[in-house]
Amino acid sequence: MNDIQVMNKAADNIRILAASMVEKANSGHPGGAMGGADFVNVLFSEFLIYDPKNPKWEGRDRFFLDPGHMSPMLYSVLALSGKFTLDELQQFRQWGSVTPGHPEVDVMRGIENTSGPLGQGHTYAVGAAIAAKFLKARLGEEVMNQTIYAYISDGGIQEEISQGAGRIAGTLGLDNLIMFYDANNVQLSTKVEDVDAENVAMKYEAWGWKVIQINGNDVNEIRKALKEAKAEISKPTLIIGNTVMGKGAVGADNSCYENKVSTHGQPLSAAGASIADTIKNLGGDPEHPFAILPEVAELYAKRAKELEIIVAERYAVKDVWAKAHPDLAAKMEQWFSGKAPKIDWAAIEQKANQATRAASATVLGVLATHVENMIVASADLSNSDKTDGFLKKTHAFVKGDFSGAFFQAGVAELSMACICIGMSLHGGVIAACGTFFVFSDYMKPALRMAALMEQPVKFIWTHDAFRVGEDGPTKAKTPEVPVQEPPKAKGPDFVEAAPATPAPIHLEPTEHPKGGDHFDELEQMLDKKHLPDQPQKPTVVVTAPKKRGLFSQVLGLFKKKK
What is the Cα–Cα distance from 383 to 371, expressed in whole angstroms? Predict the structure, then answer.
């Protein structure tokens, strides 16, 4: 166990670096990063298991940051871990820098997710925990026994998506998920108490979580909570850490600048504090703020050696497992390679004159039996969006049983989309999710992030345009390609022209010269293998609920009314 004084010194070092980054950039959020420094220091120096020499190791623990504005904290602890240089920290928020204002996914540097839109980051962690459970059920605990850590702030707790993420994680009993809630009672414009009077602990307990409340700036309490959370075998754990916004910040007259709204979203000097005196107060040198203190460097060098031993032991277990199960070892290598499986698309038979959602169901049924690492989800519409074509060949996840491959998300389109993105970020799985086209509007923030992170999630939307029949206009979608397709850019190719936009595939039955309906777009999709094989972009598949003949009848009614 590391010395408490050294641990506190390391947390102060993170605070100095974080505050200095924001000060030099004259932009950013120092207060939260300074308050959360103790937790990330304990996590990275004593608990998080990863391979510094092989960042993409499949069995590593994963850390998902939700509040992207707290990037100075993450960059600082990663600098202590050797992932960033001090020069790179000094380029914080600069054009072309590897340290942008909000972290962007870069596994080689220890960043598991792009973060920024509050609430999405911890929801990715839920998806990663599901993927880990899914893979563990197929490959075994010898190679898939990782812990998924998440870090959430007051804003993430308040975002509505936290309802879906919390409910789903609790319902599924994701005991491999540990989330730290940085409860500092300060947000960008107000104190938390001014806008939120809920009992967060009781809320998460009602969802089926284990909840531990601690002083989030106390090393021993953090350690104890993490050990208790790691020992939990049936529930996800929420550690509510009561932290101090702007911990250690002082004015030129040594007045306290902790727990102030003003230190949340601007440099300390702009908030009235003294950056020089704050650095002194934290044990640093104001003339040389971008430095790693000797005892802190020693602490993280010690952790690097510990990780070498831990990882070597894990690799030894993996080698024994691979020799005993060469078939599983081959599957794991294939699944984590990101390569698409071989499918005989020409052998898939489709009925004539059917709705494209039915054709989609047929394809999904084939994928269910041929793509062992595919997970399909639906937001309480599996029997209507026809993702049940996949479900009928497997079964849904339930607490304690992840042997199936279907995720029933309930009525939570945004949560479902982010969870599927989290599955993809974890690696080893192909994720797809379905809902009605009209409800894709709920998912747009997630679609943008999937495209920015280049995650190949498949979004399946049915009931396109206004052909919803008896359901009426509330279930109708204005005819458009979602997320606004750029001009002169069509189909999957336009992702290159607009990297923050998913690739749409609109499946429409078209009039065949010989009569009847002919699924040209569907055949094109199968020929080009769009559905499973878009390794660096999300894909949208839009299908119709009715066959073309009914659409023609509807148009006829409109003409009669005129």
Answer: 21
